Structure formats: C-alpha cells, structure tokens
Amino acid sequence: MRFVDEYRDADRARALSAEIARLCDPGREYKFMEVCGGHTHTIYKHGIEDLLPDNVTLVHGPGCPVCVIPMGRVDDAIHIARRPGVLMTSFGDMMRVPGSDGSFFDSNAEGTSIRMVYSPLDALKLARQDPEQHVVFMAIGFETTAPSTAMTLLRAEAEGVENFSVFGNHVTIIPAIKAILDSPDLRLDGFLGPGHVSTVIGCRPYEFIPRDYGKPLVVSGFEPLDILQSIYLLLRQLAEGRAEVENQYTRVVPWQGNTTALRAIAETMELRPYFEWRGLGFISHSALRLRERFAPFDAEKRFDLPGLRVADPKACQCGEVLKGVLKPWECKVFGTACTPETPIGTCMVSPEGACAAYYNFGRFNRRRVREVSGA
Amino acid sequence: MCLAIPGEVVEVLPDRADLAKVVVSGVRRNINISLLAEDPPAPGEWVLIHVGFALSKVDETEARAVLEFLAGIGQSYSDELDAFEDSHID
Ligand code: SF4
C-alpha cells in the first residue's frame, strides 16, 4: 500500500482495497477494461494496480480520441491546410500526432497555418473575424465532444458564416466496445465505463454488454477512489453472479444522458457506413459525418481529399495497445524510439494515451518488478 | 482536450441566454451553456466545462474535489487551463 497516502481519503481507499481482496476468488483471473483514457491516466498516476490483488488486471481500452485517429486523416488535414487562404484549427492534442509526412507542427514549419483552439466556437470566431480566410475546424473526439461541434455548426448556419467548415472525425464509443468484445484476442470480465461520454449518452447504450455478452459494466468517475469503487462494484456483481450496467458516477452522469446534446448531434450529424480507427482497422457505423443539410460547412465536401489509407509504421504496436492485448511497455519501441517527444504512435501523444500515461508515471507492472528484482 | 474542468458560473449574459461567464481557477471566461438549456445554471452554481461548453451541473463539493484532483495531475491540467485562457467565445 505504498501509494495509499496520496488518496484524498486514505482510509476509504484501504477499506475498498480490502473489500476487493475479499471478493476475489484466488483461483480465478480477472481482467477489466477501462474504456476511457482519462481512467488510464488516473490508474498509472495513482498506482491503482498496487491496491489490487495480483489476479486482478486492468486492461487499457480505445477511449483516447487522439490515439484512434489514423494517419490518413492527419494527412488529409494537412492537405487541406496547404490550400492557399486556409487556416486549419484543432485541439492542442492533435498538433503532435504523426501523419505519414509529419505532424501539424512539422507542417507549420513548412508554411501551413494550423492553429490550436480551445473550443470549436473559438474557430468559428476566427472565421467571423477574418472573412478573407477560410477557417476549418478539425473535429475529433467521442460523444463528449460531438455536441460542441454540433452546436457550433448550428450557430454557423444561423449566422450564415460562409468561410467556416468542419473536418469531421467524431467517433462513437459503442461500436468500438463491441469490436473489442467480438475480437478473439482478449477475454474480458467486465468494463469500467467512460464517465464524461456517459454524461451525454447516458447508461442505456451499454445494456447490450450484459444482455448479449453476459459481462458487467460500471460507469466510473475519474478519481482514484471512484475507480477503486467501480472495481469493487464489478467484482461484487461477478461474486453474486450478476451482470448489469451500474452507475458509480451518479453525481455527474444521469441515467438518460443529456437529451439536448443528443438532439444536437442527431440534427447535424449521421453515422458513417464505416470509419478507420488507428490500430483497430475499419469498424462499421463507428463514426459521424455531417448531414447533407450542412454540406456547405463540410470540409470533406468543400475540399478534394486524397483520403488515402496509410498503413501504420511497422514498429508501431498501438493497435495491440488500444485493444488491450499488449501493455505499453511490451511494445518494442516503447521508451526507446517512441517517447512523448518523438512519438511514433498516437498512444504516446495524448496524455490520455496508455503509452504516454505509462511513460510519464513510470510505475512498473507489479509482476515485472518482482521478476526483475528476483523477489 | 479530454478533460472536463469545473467552473463557477458568475453571470448569465442578459442579452445572450446561451452564454455564461465562469471562473476557473481564477480565470474568467465565457462559456456556452446551451447544452443545459433544459435546466440552465444560475450564478453561484458549478458546471463541468468541456471545450467551451457546459456539459453538466455539479455541486460545489464535487467541483472542489475535481479541482483538487486536476491540480494533482499536473501538466495536462495546466495545458488545459492555458487553452481555456486563450479562449474568447462570444
Ligand atoms: S510505444 Fe509508441 S509505437 Fe509502441 S504502442 Fe505505444 S505509441 Fe505505439
């Protein structure tokens, strides 16, 4: 219990850790996937695994929106940015994501203007301020972020802003979870459900997981105690032979989600037939594109995009990391050729990416520490 | 960008029901509150903010706990605050 004193309520952390140990069947291995990169961050930062019995393993999921953007989309964005009179904008986390010919930062060094913005509304404002320039917002993110893009589109339409468009890359979490459940590589015992995505979509969309796959899911908050409590709730379900969707994060997540946000997404965007996820390949109905009504604001329609599929670098094992098949340190280039300063794969770029979280906090896998130290 | 940060609503703009002024760690900026149109936040209430939009209301105890947690995660929170400071939504 080395790290327990860092917890806001160390007594509660100790009590939960003891409860977790009590619920575990020592003859069984438990594998839980935390879907969201925010959880991965907390788990490494606070050494959550140190508070768990050895037969409980946490597996990192695909829920880092920057990590799942394929190289081809970065290339497409740079292609748009190279057009004269275009100002490309996106969130800060996108700036270092490698495309096949470098990142946004590299591209700016060669003369494009790609700027980071805090909000899509800031991008819209840039368009309003300079009508001579065409401002494109590269939209990324799961359902947490999609409503903001939707509201910005509605605003741009209402104001008739003509020099603004959106390069849409929003992905949806449910098909990714389903792809992982259907993949033969991994046997999971349950999920920690993403907190902020669930404020938008609510808890109902997860109900197929217990129903069709017989596995529990607990929507979890981001603090160490939230995660411990969610693991406890998962183990309690398994011990009692139940599989249900539970909501640990009721202080923020309403069961029905945010209907205003869902309506705004539905009004402006529709499902794409398929979309490529870095490392996971093409997943059907897993991303959003702008509806026909918003064609004037759709960068994919306004600009001719090469839309090439670019294979990930050979050394990169992000796909395995995103599917939870490999732990970050098991990738051959982890920490050597691939570091946050010189990322080869996306999981090393965003602080929510499993590789970056692991690299930054450097807490070693328990078993590995023992192997290395011979204990 | 993945972080949702808590801010205290200090003013709802009189002529713009979709905008509110919030204070996040001492920085005062506009955010859009139209995602909470069914139950708009009033001054003194706390909201979780994600890329310039209030995503949900939280109570003050929760907000302070989240702030304390975010302060502990270091770099990604300070990057988020820098981005927030650069924001000028209107
Ligand atoms: S270490 Fe780098 S290349 Fe390997 S999986 Fe992680 S991000 Fe990808």
For the structure shown, list the relevant keywords.
heterodimer, A: 375 residues, alpha/beta, Rossmann fold, 5-stranded parallel sheet, 4-stranded parallel sheet, 15 helices, 37% helix, 17% strand, globular, B: 90 residues, alpha+beta, SH3 type barrels, 5-stranded antiparallel sheet, 2 helices, 5 strands, 29% helix, binds iron/sulfur cluster
Tell me the CATH architecture of the domain at 71-173 and 257-302 in chain A: 3-Layer(aba) Sandwich
Ligand catalogue: iron/sulfur cluster
Could you say which overall geometry of chain A the principal axes of the C-alpha atoms support?
globular
Strand ordering within the main sheet of chain A: 2-1-7-8-9
- Count of individual helical segments of chain A: 15
Oligomer: heterodimer
Helix/strand/pairing category of chain B:
alpha+beta
- Tell me the Rg of chain B in angstroms: 12 Å
Biggest interface found: A-B, 45 and 36 residues
Q: In one word, what is the shape of chain B?
A: globular
Radius of gyration of chain A: 21 Å
Largest sheet of chain A: 5 strands, parallel
Helix content of chain A: 25-40%
The CATH C-level name of chain B is: Mainly Beta
Number of domains of chain B: 1
Superfamily at the CATH H level of the domain at 71-173 and 257-302 in chain A? Answer: HypD, alpha/beta domain 2
Report what the structure shows:
Chain B: Belongs to the HupF/HypC family. Chain B: One of its GO terms (biological process) is protein maturation. Chain B: One of its GO terms (molecular function) is iron ion binding. The complex is a heterodimer of chains A (375) and B (90). Chain A is an alpha/beta fold. Chain A has a domain at 71-173 and 257-302: Rossmann fold. Chain A has 15 helices and 13 strands. Chain A has helices spanning 10-23, 37-45, 71-81, 104-109, 120-129, 146-159, 173-182, 195-201, 208-213, 224-239, 259-268, 299-302, 318-322, 354-361, 366-373; strands at 30-36, 56-63, 86-90, 114-116, 134-141, 164-170, 190-193, 217-219, 245-247, 269-271, 274-277, 281-284, 288-290. In chain A, the strands form four sheets. Chain A has a five-stranded parallel beta sheet. A four-stranded parallel beta sheet of chain A has the order 4-3-5-6, with helices on both faces. Chain B has 90 residues and is of the alpha+beta class. Chain B has a single domain (5-86), classed as Roll (SH3 type barrels), CATH 2.30.30. Helix content of chain B is 29%, strand content 34%. Chain B has helices at 60-73, 75-86, and strands spanning 5-12, 19-24, 27-32, 46-50, 53-58. A five-stranded antiparallel beta sheet of chain B has the order 3-2-1-4-5. The chains are: A alpha/beta (375), B alpha+beta (90). The A-B interface holds A 8, 37-38, 41-42, 45, 64-66, 91-93, 116-122, 125, 140-141, 144-145, 147-148, 151, 196, 199-200, 222-223, 251-254, 258-261, 264, 350-352, 360 and B 1-4, 32, 34-38, 48, 50-53, 55-56, 58-59, 62, 65-66, 68-69, 72-73, 75-76, 79, 83-84, 86-90. The complex binds iron/sulfur cluster (SF4). Iron/sulfur cluster (SF4) binds at residues 316-318, 321, 328, 331, 333-334, 338, 344-345, 347-348, 355 of chain A.
